[in-house]
Specification:
Layout (H helix, E strand, L loop, with lengths): L20 H19 L3 H22 L6 H12 L11 H15 L7 H12 L18 E4 L6 E5 L6 H14 L11 H15 L6 H17 L7 H7 L1 H11 L6 H35 L5 H11 L12 H8 L3 H14 L2 E4 L6 E4 L4
Antiparallel strand pairs: 1-2, 3-4
Length: 369
């Protein structure tokens, strides 16, 4: 089997957008609606929304690759790089520090043309503490760059990228394509999700780094979306992708077998639309959260506020399994009697709703207020 880069028409991608015209229109509507909601928020709530979105992207883009980051360190890294902390927080997790830097740089530099130097910088941010790979440069190893799954001796090769010797030329051509398809470019692609879909597939098919290609490829997709929309995009592609990684890898594998990529673009546009809808849900959640604290902040003690904030960190999807007495004790280090009184008070004030009974009693935030 020949991969896409081995075929005569590489890298001339062909596709038909007729099937997804309605999806592209809906995406434009959702983007406008989300932007309007964001603009109507206070500056503090706008910043909270932006930070929440970047944190979700940072954590989920790493989880797709099997890395699980400390959330508090990711938040601190993003806030440090946005200049929001008067005294920068100390960050223990070096990977969290690097991906936080990446998220902020992708957002703040979105109008700039893509360059080799920028890609090397992103790679250095992500891989700064990895001593076993070449950092901030294209791969040079002689062995094939393969995407493999399965146990040793039973591996399945899903894709093999171009040899390392071809990478510099391939990446020069890719960077030129990216900049030429940007707004005002000689080959401008006006549909943001379509340009992002091609950019991600094109980059992943070259696989220019020893490691980190998936994370940087998703950052490139975000840059493409932001450039074409003309503002930093407010969504997390990785959060949507991570919910169904199997479909993502399957769609990518199929797309790397042919340069007719209509099915890939449909998958990616659908994913981008889902991510944009999730961003709208996040804004609505943050607005409800603000109303919640306005109502209850003077009725709750420090322990209760700590637990409520921890529950809200889970976002619109909610705190897994709700809150119960044992979790409350673990978070606040109080006795069972105190935990029971605190939870009963939360229920009496209407801050939480009680579900179940006995040992199965759990408490869910009452956000529809």
């Amino acid at each position: 089997m020949k991969y896409n880069w081995q075929q005569k028409d590489w890298p001339v991608f062909t596709f038909d957008l007729q099937e997804i015209d309605d999806t592209l229109f809906t995406f434009a509507e959702e983007t406008g609606r989300t932007g309007g909601m964001l603009n109507a928020m206070s500056e503090d709530l706008q910043m909270e929304t932006v930070i929440n979105t970047m944190v979700a992207e940072a954590i989920k883009t790493s989880e797709i690759e099997g890395e699980y980051l400390n959330r508090e360190d990711v938040v601190s890294s993003i806030r440090n790089n946005l200049g929001l902390n008067k005294k920068p927080d100390t960050i223990r997790d070096k990977k969290a520090r690097g991906v936080g830097q990446l998220m902020v740089d992708v957002r703040e530099s979105f109008p700039e043309p893509l360059t080799q130097e920028k890609l090397f910088l992103w790679h250095e941010m992500l891989m700064a503490d990895d001593r076993y790979i070449q950092i901030g440069k294209w791969r040079t190893h002689q062995e094939p760059m393969q995407v493999i799954s399965g146990a040793m001796s039973k591996e399945k090769i899903h894709f093999e990228a171009p040899p390392s010797a071809q990478v510099p030329a391939e990446m020069t051509r890719f960077i030129s394509w990216f900049n030429n398809t940007a707004p005002g470019g000689i080959n401008e692609i006006k549909k943001a999700p379509v340009r992002a879909a091609i950019a991600h597939l094109y980059f992943e098919s070259i696989h220019p780094f020893e490691d980190g290609n998936g994370r940087i490829g998703r950052a490139i997709a975000e840059k493409a979306l932001s450039q074409t929309l003309g503002r930093p995009v407010l969504l997390s592609l990785s959060r949507t992708i991570e919910k169904d990684k199997k479909s993502y890898y399957g769609a990518l594998e199929r797309a790397q077998q042919d340069n007719q990529i209509t099915k890939w673009i449909k998958y990616f546009v659908d994913t981008t639309l889902a991510a944009q809808k999730q961003a709208g849900e996040l804004i609505e959640f943050i607005l409800r959260k603000a109303k919640f604290f306005d109502r209850f902040k003077n009725e709750l003690n420090e322990r209760q506020l700590k637990v409520i904030k921890r529950m809200m960190d889970a976002g619109p999807e909610g705190f897994k399994g709700g809150m119960n007495a044992n979790k409350y004790i673990s978070l606040t280090k109080v006795s069972k009697a105190t935990a029971t009184r605190d939870l009963q008070h939360l229920s009496d004030t209407g801050a939480v709703l009680v579900q179940g009974g006995g040992r199965s009693t759990r408490y869910i935030l009452s956000m529809d207020i």
